[in-house]
Structure to design on (113 residues):
């Protein structure tokens, strides 16, 4: 099965850890590429490359501000990821329910001793 290109598939784009770091950083607001590179310890060309990929899949938008280009998170692009992971919500809820029952059992045993 052929793998989707990184520049057209959100899942492939966010598979790269540095791109996820960029998205996390941009949650706090828009930033120029130099600031993204400095904050995350990347080279500016490396940060630019990752920002281009994120822009092409719709996770980042940019705008010119004087001589700078500012990048901002466009979380609407994460909708497909959210919808997919939401399918596992029942699994996690059941796991947390079992964990809660176990903790309650340990508390009861601790009180009886």
């Amino acid at each position: 099965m052929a793998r989707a290109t990184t520049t057209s598939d959100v899942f492939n784009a966010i598979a790269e850890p540095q791109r996820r770091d960029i998205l996390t950083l941009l949650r706090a607001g828009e930033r120029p590429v130099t600031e993204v590179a400095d904050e995350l310890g990347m080279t500016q060309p490396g940060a630019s490359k990752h920002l281009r990929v994120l822009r092409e899949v719709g996770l980042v938008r940019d705008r010119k501000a004087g001589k700078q280009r500012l990048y901002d998170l466009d979380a609407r692009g994460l909708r497909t990821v959210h919808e997919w992971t939401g399918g596992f919500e029942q699994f996690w809820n059941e796991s947390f329910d079992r964990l809660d029952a176990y903790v309650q059992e340990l508390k009861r045993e601790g009180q009886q001793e």
